[in-house]
Write a sequence for this structure.
């Protein structure tokens, strides 16, 4: 059973471009979480999605950031008009079910660098 | 709101030394507590967890006990190995309803010398 897949692993964008990060959850998992890790910081929650629905986007900046998890295909985190402050590692996690006891499995992350 | 506080790092130990990494939390309700480990260039892996007061999570020689009275979940290992060198994150999940988003501490880097 393959783990959580993220691609690309490394992404370089110039200021003002768009960044598109992909996450394929583990087989049988329908819950996806996105987290951002800034240098020297812990991970910060961004958004929680179930298939076709955004459940909680309280950690996501209101502008330029969006996320989706379509019925078919991976979850996408999209950052429009990137700025240097968006440079970070973005991690996706998936779980089979919801609730505080259920383990989240993390992908290897996408390291975004904005030049 | 929910928060997790970890001791300042980094930590450098010699092989076979005893390890303690402190973690305290603030949360509403009854959170589940986790320790995750991150090896260089990789994602996070769950190391252990505890879901209620006085539970002890253990894995690979690591242990942590959920202490509600002191709101702590300190990580311990009796004899560290070079392969334990990594970044360790304490986290909690205090979901309301179905959302089990994690709140993380800042992480601490452990380096173990041969």
């Amino acid at each position: 059973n393959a783990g959580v897949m993220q691609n690309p692993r490394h992404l370089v964008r110039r200021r003002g471009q768009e960044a598109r990060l992909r996450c394929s959850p583990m087989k049988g998992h329908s819950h996806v979480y996105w987290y951002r890790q800034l240098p020297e910081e812990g991970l910060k929650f961004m958004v929680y999605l179930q298939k076709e629905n955004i459940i909680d986007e309280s950690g996501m900046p209101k502008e330029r950031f969006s996320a989706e998890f379509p019925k078919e295909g991976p979850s996408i985190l999209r950052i429009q008009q990137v700025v240097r402050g968006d440079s970070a590692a973005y991690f996706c996690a998936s779980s089979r079910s919801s609730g505080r006891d259920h383990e989240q499995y993390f992908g290897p992350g996408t390291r975004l660098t904005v030049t | 709101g929910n928060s997790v506080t970890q001791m300042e790092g980094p930590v450098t130990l010699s092989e076979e030394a005893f390890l303690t990494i402190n973690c305290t939390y603030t949360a509403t309700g009854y959170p589940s507590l986790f320790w995750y480990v991150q090896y260089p260039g990789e994602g996070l892996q769950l190391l252990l967890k505890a879901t209620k007061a006085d539970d002890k999570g253990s894995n690979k020689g690591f242990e942590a006990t959920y202490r509600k009275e002191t709101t702590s979940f300190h990580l311990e290992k009796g004899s560290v190995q070079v392969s334990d060198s990594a970044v360790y994150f304490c986290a909690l999940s205090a979901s309301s309803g179905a959302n089990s988003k994690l709140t993380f501490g800042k992480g601490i880097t452990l380096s173990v010398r041969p």
User: Anything to note?
Assistant: The CA atoms of residues 32 and 94 of chain A lie 4 Å apart. The two ends of chain A are 37 Å apart (CA to CA). The mean pLDDT of chain A is 92.
